[in-house]
Design a protein that fits this description.
- The chain contains twelve helices and seven strands.
- The protein has about 280 residues and is of the alpha+beta class.
- The longest helix is centred in the middle third of the chain and has 23 residues.
Amino acid sequence: MAGRPVTELNKSEVLSSLFSVWDGIDAMLVGLSEDQWLASSPLPGWDVKALVAHMIGTESFLAGVSAPQPDIDVAALDHVRNDIGVMNECWVRHLREHSGTDVLARFRAITSERRNALEGMSDRDWNAVTATPVGPDSYGRFMRVRVFDCWMHEQDIRVALNRPSSDDDLGVPAAQLAVDEIAATMGFVVGKLAKVPDGTRVLFELTGPLARDIRVRVNGRAQVVDDFGDQGPTATIRLDGLQFTRLAGGRPMCPARPQNVELGGDSDVARQIVGRLNFVI
């Protein structure tokens, strides 16, 4: 899109976070029983194995590997809503009969291939504009989206296995980058999804290990801003940082963390935003 700013991100920081998430997922999967691989996740229709199959599929796509042909019309499944969902489900169906050990081996193989490719990428290619899930932007932004996606699935696996993240688990750079990616979408959420009135100033107050403030001003269009100048927010939303990521990702809240959502200022507008926080495709 002409005039759209390009996001330039530090390659080393993004890749170290992405690789650390892959390593963390790998460590959680080691030694799982077949029953644990089949444990239901917070995502409809997907168990732990399906989550890993999805990540295998996305990294395979980025490595130029075509999705396998499914055994059914996956577009007809209730939880498949778009072409990306169709691709995801092709991999889920393809790997569902494979053992957990085999799926883990495939995960290790494709992430190893992707590590090598990403580490060898030039800065020019890293900053080049490409198609991403959030529109045309740098390849580096795409990889921050991958940090977000894989980190979110790590949390899904943790919920499925009843191994919720500790405060220490949440205090890592990858978690902060995932929240960075979510924060960057809040203008879209507030303006396009929630459609709040012009003049609204929204403050998201995140608490816990992922604590931060996110501000969105609506002045003709909704934009994330550093501050409101000498004005205060017109609506505030205060909740645990991990729970914020769960709602933004269309997931139920994590049972292991505080679930209260405090609304302030124009509570009707704040409630409207909370109801439309889910931005994932």
